Description:
Elements: E1 2-6, E2 27-28, E3 31-32, H1 33-43, E4 48-53, H2 57-65, E5 72-77, H3 84-92, E6 102-106, E7 109-111, H4 115-125, E8 129-133, E9 142-144, E10 150-153, E11 163-165, E12 167-173, H5 190-197, E13 203-207, E14 213-215, H6 219-225
Parallel strand pairs: 1-4, 1-6, 4-5, 8-13
Antiparallel strand pairs: 2-3, 6-12, 7-14, 8-12, 9-10, 9-11
Helix pairs in contact: 3-5
Amino acid sequence: MEGLVLAAGLGTRLRPLTNNRPKALVEIKGKTLLEIAVHRLADAGVKRCVVNVHYFGDMLIDFINSHKWPCEVLISDERELLLNTGGALKHAATLFSGHEPVLIHNVDILSDIDFLALERHHLASGNLVTLCTSHRETQRMLLFNKEGNLVGIYGQMDATGLTPLPFSGVSIANPELFSLMPPDDHPYPVFGCYLEIAKHHRIGYFMHSADNWLDVGTPKTLEKAK
């Protein structure tokens, strides 16, 4: 596997902690969220990890370049234009080998998700993309049909007969995904793109326990993580 850590966001939910730094450099017990994410990916066998940067991009690049990492860390530079989640994936595509699945990880997610089990499930399923999901309370849900394929977003269509599941901010994708995505010359969200691609390719899910997962994108959940 190769890895992509999405770290370019503005971190608005974490203010005031992100008034003077990117959220990737917010710390939990002396370790930045970026360090935690990259080490987790490296522990799962990731040899090359791409990190996208925008907000306080110079600071994040300096941090990356001044630290020793357990794997190769490359920078996908979005300092001129924040590309949203979809544009970010497309923009980073040229930094990957094109021969291995890419583990995509939001920098503000802490979890004990078994990434090797995720990879095994993904390869066995024939999915183009596999999205980590769990049973937990949230208003943002993805909809999957009885075959386990992504078909919609809860609240935007009739959910009768469909399975609503929340996305956990971690996924794995075959490199073929990138050629099916729009150009990276404008920002766009990834799930609108996924819904189009899922009409012709399998985008499925991998269930994990909600007990081993935490979104630390707010001061409250960050304190809980500590």
